[in-house]
Design brief:
Elements lengths: L1 H16 L4 E7 L4 E9 L2 E11 L2 E8 L33 E7 L5 E9 L14 E5 L22 E6 L1 E4 L6
Antiparallel strand pairs: 1-2, 1-9, 2-3, 3-6, 4-5, 4-7, 7-8
C-alpha cells in the first residue's frame, strides 16, 4: 500500500511540475484596459488576450527592457539584449521585445483580440520577459521598414499609451 501511494504521489508531483509556465499583464489606463497572458508551449510563447479602448487601427505592441512603470517612459527602450535593429515579430532581425502591431476593430471604442505564438520571447533565460513592461504605442509600428529616422529603433510607433509589468501567472511551483 505504501509503495502504491508513493507511486501515485510521484506521478501527481510529476504532473504538477510539467504544467507550462504562464505570465500575465493587466493594462489599465483612463482609455485602455485589457489583459494578456504569455504561456509556454512547445512552439514558443503563446500570447493571448483582449485589449479595448482605442480607435480602430493598428498600434505598436512591444516589450520594453525595464519594469519601472511609474510612467511609461521609465520602462526604457525595447527589450533588445542582442543589440539588433528593430523589426517585425516574424522578421529574422528584430528586438526580442518586438511584437509588431495589434489591430483594434469596431466603431467608437475598438477592441483588439491578441492571439499568436512568438518564438523569440521566453519566460526563462536570456530572452525572459518577466518583470519587464509591455507597452501599447499610439501609432502603427512600421516594423523597421518605414525609412523614418526612428524606424530601426522604435518602428516609429509613437507615444506610449499604456504600460504594465509582466508578472508570474501560474503555476507557482514551476517558478522555484
Amino acid at each position: 500500500m505504501i509503495f502504491y501511494l508513493l507511486i501515485c504521489f510521484t506521478l501527481t508531483v510529476g504532473q504538477i511540475t510539467r504544467l507550462p509556465r504562464s505570465a500575465v499583464v493587466h493594462l489599465i489606463s483612463e482609455e485602455v484596459t485589457g489583459s494578456i497572458t504569455f504561456t509556454e508551449t512547445e512552439e514558443g510563447i503563446h500570447v493571448k488576450g483582449t485589449i479595448s479602448g482605442l480607435d480602430a487601427g493598428n498600434y505598436g505592441f512591444h516589450i520594453h527592457e525595464l519594469g519601472d512603470t511609474i510612467d511609461c517612459d521609465a520602462a526604457g527602450s525595447h527589450f533588445n539584449p542582442y543589440d539588433t535593429d528593430h523589426g517585425g515579430r516574424d522578421h529574422t532581425v528584430r528586438h526580442v521585445g518586438d511584437l509588431g502591431n495589434i489591430q483594434f476593430v469596431g466603431t467608437g471604442t475598438g477592441v483588439a483580440e491578441v492571439d499568436f505564438v512568438d518564438k523569440v520571447i521566453a519566460l526563462r533565460g536570456r530572452n525572459n520577459i518577466l518583470g519587464r513592461a509591455l507597452i501599447l504605442h499610439g501609432q502603427e509600428d512600421d516594423l523597421g521598414l518605414g525609412g523614418h529616422e526612428t524606424s530601426l529603433t522604435t518602428g516609429n510607433a509613437g507615444s506610449r499609451v499604456v504600460c504594465a509589468v509582466i508578472g508570474v501567472g501560474s503555476p507557482v511551483d514551476a517558478w522555484v
